[in-house]
From TrEMBL:
Originating organism: Mycoplana azooxidifex
Protein name: Membrane fusion protein (Multidrug efflux system)
Domain Multidrug resistance protein MdtA-like barrel-sandwich hybrid residue range list: 60-201
Any one Gene Ontology cellular component term annotated for this protein: cell envelope
Residue ranges that the Swiss-Prot or TrEMBL entry lists as coiled coil: none
Family per record: Belongs to the membrane fusion protein (MFP) (TC 8.A.1) family.
GO terms assigned for molecular function: transmembrane transporter activity
Length: 399
């Protein structure tokens, strides 16, 4: 009897279980990954590139003697401005004066011999008409005249050489600029074309800044200029702004003056030279600087936060966009430099696209997402906090 009763209860429980509303119930639907997005809008973006470089003198001249002698006088103040033609050094010129005077005397003697030979030749030519002298006599006098004239020309050349040596005894500035430290003192012996310079003159107003850029970047910029995307006509001046080593901005703009058409075989870089006014001597040769080159303005470009862009092994830049169906789609984009914390994108996106800027760890290409509008400050930080919302949604699902 008890066994039958127990079997009856089990049958009732089995029936109730079979009829329970829990039968056929599925688990909770998967939650969509919550992502932050910003809406892209085209805008005009200044196109600049930042380059590192070094200041170099506009012109440099190493002063060397061209004759041998003893330094008698130093006629300049070290570290001061000199003008082209200013006297820098005086070499003892006693022997050069003597050589010059001797050459003058030799020239006078040669001139006298030439005059006598000319008179003899003229007289013999007249006498030949009356047959008072022979033709041989006339020929001999002509030969003597030609020799005298040659000796006179040689004497003139020797005199000019002596004059040049005498002038070289006074060493003058070949260019204007700031002269450095003198490497010799009064009484020092100097030699013609010696290896060590007596002093160095550097022209620093205006002054050059040599910048270094990659050949790949040069080709890209050239194509942008040629296509008109930068709004700058070829041949127009390209302004450059300098930042000094202490972080201050140089107060005068310069412009590109030279693009070297030779690329380094080992580095793949080439030199871009900019020229700046330097009236206050703020820029010193050898100084390292940073330069911002203003290439123009790109119209209809997009600023894409750097945090939203990744690059694959092939170097291509990609970003995630929210599709109309609410899915994350990975797109290949074309970048052209940076502005602050943003990439300048010229292709791969369009106006109104929703760019994913947060929540990347939860998504992959094609996954469903729950887009939430976000904002990014100037430092590239997403201000809207998405994590609490995701946590709250998780709690509701658990309940």
């Amino acid at each position: 009897m008890r066994l039958a009763t127990k079997l009856g209860f089990l049958g009732v429980f089995s029936f109730l279980a079979a009829c329970s509303p829990q039968e056929g119930r599925e688990g909770p639907p998967p939650t969509k990954a919550e992502v932050g997005f910003v809406t892209l809008k085209p805008q005009s973006v200044p196109r600049t590139i930042g380059l590192r470089g070094r200041v170099v003198a506009y012109a440099t001249a190493e002063v060397r003697p061209q004759v041998n002698g003893i330094i008698r006088k130093i006629a300049f103040a070290e570290g001061r401005e000199v003008k082209a033609g200013d006297v820098l050094y005086e070499i003892d010129d006693a022997k050069f004066k003597a050589s010059f005077e001797a050459a003058q005397a030799v020239l006078k003697k040669a001139e006298a011999v030439t005059a006598g030979a000319q008179t003899t030749y003229d007289r013999n030519r007249t006498l030949l008409q009356t047959r008072a002298v022979s033709t041989q006599t006339l020929d001999d006098s002509q030969t003597s005249l030609l020799q005298a004239q040659a000796d006179q020309e040689a004497a003139k050349a020797d005199l000019e050489t002596a004059r040049i040596n005498l002038d070289y005894a006074t060493i003058r500035a070949p260019i204007g600029g700031v002269i450095g430290v003198s490497n010799v003192s009064v009484g020092a012996l100097v030699t013609e074309n010696q290896t060590d310079a007596l002093a160095t003159i550097r022209q620093v107003d205006p002054i050059h800044v040599d910048l270094v850029d990659s050949s790949a970047n040069f080709l890209r910029i050239r194509e942008e200029v040629r296509s008109g995307r930068l709004g700058r006509k070829p041949g127009t001046p390209i302004p450059v702004t300098l930042t000094l080593e202490n972080g201050t901005t140089y107060d005068t703009q310069g412009e590109i003056s030279l693009i070297d058409m030779v690329v380094g075989q080992s580095t793949g870089t080439f030199t871009v030279r900019a020229t700046f006014p330097n009236a206050e001597r703020m820029l010193i040769p050898g100084m390292f600087v940073s330069a911002t080159v203003d290439l123009g303005t790109m119209t209809n470009a997009f600023l894409v936060p750097q945090r939203a862009v990744t690059r694959g092994d092939d170097g291509k830049a990609t970003a995630y966009l929210v599709s109309a169906e609410g899915r994350a789609q990975q797109h290949v984009i074309i970048t052209s430099g940076t502005v602050g914390n943003d990439w300048v994108v010229t292709d791969g996106v369009k106006e109104g696209d929703r760019l994913i800027v947060d929540g990347f760890q939860k998504i992959s290409d094609g996954s469903e997402v729950e887009p939430v509008e976000a904002s990014i400050d100037d430092d590239g930080v997403v201000r809207q906090d998405l994590e609490p919302k995701a946590a709250e949604a998780g709690k509701e699902t658990a309940q």
